[in-house]
Amino acid sequence: MNRLSWLILLLLLLKTASSFSQTVDINFNGFQFIDNREYKAFVPRSNTYFGTRVALDVGLNVDSINHFRIGVNGIHEFGARPFFLKINPIIYYNYINKSWLFNIGAFSRKGLLDNYPIALLNDTLNLYRPNIEGMLAKYSNNNFYENIWIDWVSRQTVTDRENFIFGASGKYAPGSRGSFYISNYFMMLHDAFASVKTSPYDHVRDNGGAQLRLGLDFSHRTILDSLTIEAGGMLSLERTRGIGGFKIPKGFVADLFMAYKRFGIHDSFYAGQGL
Fold first, then answer.
1. 8 Å CB contact between 122 and 129
2. Is residue 186 located within the same domain as residue 258?
3. CB 252 within 8 A of CB 243
4. 274: domain range?
5. Which of 60, 64, 112 is nearest to 91 (CA)?
């Protein structure tokens, strides 16, 4: 389905929404970004990201726990042609109650996976691949949450390789008023063949990583709105099937985040074996 078809479908749904105001809601959001990255040691990754992203979706609320949503999410990089670099469809089923959340379809990663360390999931995913295309389940209570997810990146065809990413992340804070917490992150990319293998030297690859962190949260206990300090360990998982087993380089990670009103500083540190 092309961009125009998606926009026409969304407009028809918006028109229908007026007839079902008690069961339909409309959500619109957007943000602007400017990020200039200069790396002396790795010039090819030195880029400037400057643009805006907007999303519009309509939700049908079957009841208080079952929901269906459909919409579009588009990105424009300033100075680029055409105006919209890409429009991603939003279409998914959402189940939510006091303890559980479950999504299946194409849905935004924002608020679900955007807190991953950049050593595991690059933060530019929020700009250029804002949706998860797959499933996510999350369990939470007052002191704990954990989610598991799978994101299908590329469906296998004659020419396209099969790619998907799966993972889990969570956080446990023992006391409701305490500052100490434990967080965990894991992801794995599975890179398999196209349906027609074109080279005997082609192999299935698995690449991933994990982090376990201990943290202190002093948010709203100082003049700052947010202040968190974390430290822990990281390992990387790399395997080329048919050639060898997993290579598992390891290292130490530390993280500092502080913010006041709309201004913040986020610093990450790694020391260890090459990832």
1. no
2. yes
3. no
4. 98-275
5. 60
Average pLDDT over residues 269-274: 90
**Cβ burial, residue 130 (10 Å; 0-12/13-18/19+):** buried
What mean pLDDT do residues 179-188 have?
A: 96
Cβ-count burial of 42 within 10 angstroms (0-12 exposed, 13-18 middle, 19+ buried)?
Answer: exposed
Question: Domain check: are 102 and 82 in the same one?
Answer: no
pTM here is: 0.84
- Please indicate, yes or no, whether residues 225 and 212 belong to a single structural domain of this protein: yes
Who wins on pLDDT, 80 or 227?
Answer: 227
DSSP-assigned beta bridge partners for residue 167: 149, 187
* Helix extents (H) in the chain: 3-17, 125-128
Final residue before a domain boundary, out of 35, 66, 96: 96
- Name the domain boundary from 96, 124, 152: 96
β-pairing, 250-260 vs 263-272, is: antiparallel
pLDDT at residue 158, rounded to an integer: 86
Beta strands in 16-143 (DSSP E): 24-36, 48-61, 66-77, 86-96, 100-108, 131-140
Average pLDDT over every residue of 252-268: 93
Tell me how far apart the alpha carbons of residues 190 and 161 are, in angstroms, rounded to a whole number: 10
Q: Does position 258 have pLDDT exceeding 80, yes or no?
A: yes
% of residues, the chain, pLDDT over 90: 55
Number of Cβ within a 10 Å radius of residue 190? 16
pLDDT of residue 21: 46
Same domain (yes/no): 40, 107: no
Query: Residue 207: in which H helix or E strand, if any?
Result: strand 205-217
Same domain, 162 and 67: no
Cis ω before 130 (30° cut-off from 0): no
